Amino acid sequence: STRAQNISINKQNTSLKEVFQLIEKQTSFTVVYDSKIIKATKPFSLTVKDVSIETLLNRCLRDLDLDYIISMNTIVVRRKLNAPVPIMITRVTGKVTDSKGSPIPGVSIRIKGSNKGTSTDMDGKYTIDAPEPTSILVFTSIGYNVKELLVGSQKVIDVILMEEVKSLDDLVVIGYGTVNKKDLTGSVSSIKADEISKSKVTSFQEAIQGKMAGIQITSSSGEPGAAMNISIRGANTIYGSTSPLFVIDGVPYDANANEVGTASIGNKTSANPLSSLNPNDIESVDVLKDASSTAIYGSRGANGVVIITTKTGKLGAPKIDYDGYMSFSNATKKLGVLSPDEYLDYRRIVSPNTILFYKDTNKDGLYNELDEPVDLSELEKHDWQDETLQTGVSQNHNVSFSVKKDNTSYAGGIGYLDQGAIVRNNDFKRYSARLKVDQDFNTKLKIGLNISLSQTGQDGASQSGGGDGLFNGIVQNLVISKPIEFYDPLWDRAGAYISPLTMIDDAYKSAATVQNNISGYLNYKFIPGLTLNISGGGILTNSKTKEFYGKKTSWGVGDNGLGIIQDQKAASIFNTNQLTYEKWFNKNHYLNAMIATEISQYTYEYFSVQKSNFSDESTGIDDIAKGTIAKGSASYKDVNRRLSYFGRVNYTLLTKHLFTGTFRADGSDKFGKGKRFGYFPSFAYGWLISEEPFLKNSKQISNLKLRLSYGETGNERIESYRYLARLENAFYNGELGQAPASSANPDLKWETTIQYNAGIDLGLFNNRIELTLDIYSKQTKNMLLPVYVPGRTGYNQQWQNVGRVDNKGIEFQINTKNIKSKDFNWETSFNISSNRNEVKDIGNIGYIPVTMGGGWITNVGRVTVGQPIGTAYGYVFDGVYQISDFTWDNDSDPMIPHDKRFYVPKSGVVQVTGVNVRPGSSKFKDLNGDGIVDLDNDRTTISRSTPKFFGGLNNTIRYKNFDVNIFLEGAYGNQIFNESKYRLEGGVSSTWMNINKDFFYNRWTTERPSNTYGDFGDLNKTATLTSSYFVEDASYLRLKNVSIGYRFSDDLMKKIGVGSARIYVNGSNLHTWTKYTGYDPEIQSENALLAGFDRISYPRARVYTIGLNVGF
Amino acid sequence: CKDYLDTEPYSFNTVENLYKTPQDAEIGLTGCYSILNATNVQGTGFGESFTVKMPIMLNAGTDELVTQDGFTDPNYAPFGTAEVSSQNETIRNNWFFLFAGINRCNYLLENIEKANVPSPRRQEIIGEARFLRGLLYFYLATFYGGVPVYEASQQDPKAQRSKLESVYQLILADFNNAYQNLPNRAGIEGRANKWSAAGYLAKVYTYLGSCNENAVGKSLNYPLNSFDWVNKTEMYANAKSITDEIIAESGYELTKNYSYLFRETTKSQLAEESLFSIQSKTNSANGNYNLWLFWQIPIGSSVAGGGYGWFRPTGELFFKYNNADERRKNNLTLYVDPQGQKENIEGINYFIPLPCTDPLNGNYCVGKFRYRDPISKSISNGTAWSDADVPLLRFADILLLNAEAKYYTGDEAGARSRLKEVRYRSNPTAIDVLTTAYLKANFIDELLDERSRELCFEGWRRIDLIRFGKYESAINSLTDYLGSWNRIVPLLKSNVKPYKIWFPIPKTEIELSPIDQNPKY
User: Fold this and answer.
1) Domain ranges, residue A617
2) How confident is the model over A607-633, as a mean pLDDT?
3) Which of B189, B284, B301 minimises the CB distance to A495?
4) Residue B496 lies in a domain
5) pLDDT classification of A243: cutoffs 50, 70, 90
6) Per the CB < 8 Å rule, is A732 touching B100?
7) Which of residues 533-562 of A touch B (CB under 8 A)?
8) Residue among B294, B315, B316 nearest B306 (CA)
9) Which of A667, A735, A795 has the CB atom closest to B42's CB atom?
10) What is the CATH number of the domain that holds A29?
């Protein structure tokens, strides 16, 4: 960074030489020049006061054939490049070594400002022709700091390159600016490109999962393109979105899952709107966690901010890289359901006298021994999981380039991904392209343009299950469908036998999304230190979903074919105008101040049309005119604007006391006049203790910093215009009516989150060991909640600012360089975080019910004061009723068969309100001890969706040309309400469903009275009540990634004209240690108020990848 | 930049902008009607109107209908086993739905002047809105007893419950206004007319008369819900004169085919007999529909128009019918089979459920209402939802109310001949057999049985049992063995208590703004 060092001169009849001496006197700059070129200049007079070096030099050299460049603390005055120059080539030789004196091969050496260059040989030696003594040599090598040297009169220049002490000097993107990690006062986690590209994943969220303390990432299911939930330091709010703000190359973006199309009937598994980002294009991901960092984003910062920066043209020779891989994936798990023969045994036990076993030959309406039995050997038998789960084959190709030459840099690339899924007829495709151009027009003006385009397509698996929708998704079907082909006229609702295969093959879904991220900036330096930056741009998304459900699917049969088209358009556009001033007052005081204005607008539009009754299905959704019945249509538009003013001051005292203050005023049209603006201040203090004299020379402690911060951020991510008295459509008899839908609340305003953070960064032994520890406490107040109002007012809810949610937590990260030598490197990083979320207040009501529509057990959760968000609420499972708990007819006559007995509970045996319990029924704890288990008195909190701890462990090993990466990730203490257990344990008496094998062999029977499993679900009348029976521990540890790479020697590559090449193999999701019995413990239901809820979600894929990187 | 944030919504209008033109008044009125079969109101609830839940509240937990054993959904099941708690979501939402409808009517009545509607339409709109307000208050009062009386849209969140007397004053005034101002038949199909109001007046008169006669709720000692103020003589006289007038002048009649009252598509036949029906239309893509799926149609595959059978008929109801009574074949059946027989009704196919000959057959179910073959339905999710019109008040009911009024005004013979008139429509040939078989010396016993046979599952049984003081005794007379679903009867019996003639005031309502709870909840 250019530290402003101003200069004052008042001289008559002076010379350039004298001026240069004065510069050297007043500043720390050294002026280098060839005395020959200034000899001819005439004396002149000069009066300047407190001007920058640049101003001074521009003035002195204006009319001469001279110009200058500034490199480090050196000013080089030279002939203008286009001026006629006498050629004075100097041949320079030398040797490049590291700090220990070992030669470094392959160091690039370039003449600054030209494209001439060479590189060192195996002994670190080089030879280069410098065009003139003022030439500057630039030495670059990966892993070392860049070094620039003036040739001067030297003929031999030996150079020592210092190893890059990477993490400390890394720039951290902090929002509307960057800062050296050393000077950071807030809590920010960063990941760079090389780390992102290591895990061969399709979305950037997966790439950072488990790698940053305090940031919990869960995918909603294993489906390609499925939504990813990012929670930074816990959920702050109940109804507003808890997703962080994303800032992609400066464009703020609230990831809204509605922007990407999904299936419109049945279960909506939402898609990941950021799947359009190619992880290969990302230079860095910086996550702002504490309020001192996020407050600069004011109203949008409460949930944290994820800043994504794409790659920019880099110094060095122009580079072209190819990265391609092919991968093979299969399901990590198969659920144990009955085989066809076992299934027939099960049906024979449950209902022997049915159409499955007998033909009604005597036409008495009954199926029994009097009829001819069905020949069961003729039934088609299946293992649906085997037939529908497959090996998914994927390929991915990326070509990227990076050029930085003189004043121009550009970078870009194109990518292609074709991800084959593990479920038949399901894939995800992405085409992406981007170009980033930066141009310095002169020393004052710089502009840049950044364009990235992508198209993603998600096909198939239209209803994959796992969320809170209907229990008839494709994935659910392939588990629960009966393993035999048999049509049961009473229960097969489709009217014919429909197998999971026809459900897949006759259903079509395609969601194609085009996303453009376009932004530009203009950067103008008025005077050194004072810069104006104007930027603008936007993210435009257009998603179109086409669905067709044929007659042979359960979704299309009742409609004689059903076609649906949906279209979503969204645009986030913004403009920011930012003025930055930077100044060293003397070497003790450094000030960096910024003020800015910003306007932004979000537009969202939706449209859909549905038609049915297709006599001809051959053209499917591509000729919707064939559907003769218009079933539905909808459209919706919402525009939402913000207007903001903000600023930040960084002040450094004695290079060790760091102060940061920010302030932002945000106006939003989501609120009424007078309530639109929210004000968000923050303060932070950092103390670089290691800069203090008592530690400065410590051999052990290389870095020690204490960070303290406080800040306020906001959230207004609720639907627009909730402050108005709205009307809702109220149709009657096909006519449009309007009815009041809400009472106005002109006082509605921002939700505010206050956060305190304290952190310590410790670097030991020259930063071989780096530790970061943060503790934080957040309070969200004035929460935006649709508060229940007395129903007799005619209104149900009113949006109000009430309630409070607290989050407290601790985060720990350690990075170690275990072994560091020429041939062997081993680095480890480990992070662990814990967040405690607690609902403190939800207004004037006891709880908020959480229901999951579409299944059998729907009334599942509650948001309750004193509990975290995401709890299930129900009875506590307490074993199984046994025969000894009951009396029955005729004084408990043992001769009466079990299924004919009319059981009456003995006195003292707990009864369940509304249910005739029997032996084999689930028993619940009678919490209030009144002998009866009832809804009002005996339910309690029975699960928590969020983990107590989560974290990751990453090991990177480099041995000679081999590199190995092993990454483990996990969570502890979270639970899932596994609703599918009910059906998989015989909850539905029909022949439709298969059941769980383990349950079948261990269930309660009169002979084997289990106390852990009940009777078949349809005989266990209490099984359908919400209870802890369905709650499972979903803690897991996952071997998320293992990769092995080999880098071919540069010599070899050079021979075939390639810069570098590496091949690798990679395995993802190789093993998961968990007790969870569903497909995978990592799920996220659609309902944020009960994330841990599973109705058989899409299985996770284990992926094996083989790939190649080539650089030119 | 100053007005950069002064934006307006795109996809909805605001309350202040309604009621500017006569067309707005019609839109507002349609909004009032829509509460009748709203699926959700203000994004809340699931059919706590006549669409789904009110028919359950009005029919289940009686001697006709019980919860299917093992069905435990807390939003539905407790109604069929008489264990509705104040935390029940259905209760909460129903209370809110009915008041939301009242608010809509009050809002219209307040603002109608601004809309410049010419006479006589203006008076009609007022009459219709008052009819609807009266109707909603009538159901509120029968469910919950005395409730807050609102006549303005700014509904006071702290309003306390009024005595039943005040509630019924408003109900009677509303119905009378509608009765006087509405035409013989409405200009818009399916809207309330003079006779809809007259019919509900008859309902209120007989309800009040019988509640007083039978000292309903008196043992609870709860003055707010007391019927002591009712002059039963006056009520029965009023009931007689208004039903006489309906029978003589309304033009409504018993439609020829009883079954066609309950088929999805036979709307014109229903219109001959029903004084007021919940309307729904096929061609409305965003329509309001009715949902019979859960228990009102025969169980079975959805492609055959089958339903779920969450509530099941008692065996006693089966035996209330003589084997010759055609109505039983319609009302009580077994399942529908997608490969079974269909019947064609005016060009529309319906699957015929298997007939029930023995209520101990496991599939014994309510078969009264029928979905057509869904293949030809043009509504979204047509296997679940229905575009049928649902009768709330039939001419047959008017005849039976007239019989009741005649009986209490001293004309038992006339009363008995009305019962015969009702039976005759479905059973012209077997009428003598039925007259003998159904004869009971106590006319009221026979009347109640006849009401059950004719009107079962149509939303009157719970009210009828309560107003005749037979709520407990009728349930306690059920057996646990006469029908395959009677096994849940012991549970129902153990829960039935005198105070359960009123549903509880929702707990959240009391939490949000304190209000008196019904006794013993």
Assistant:
1) 245-311+313-331+391-490+500-511+521-526+549-855+948-985+1023-1111
2) 90
3) B301
4) no
5) confident
6) no
7) 557-560
8) B294
9) A795
10) 3.55.50.30
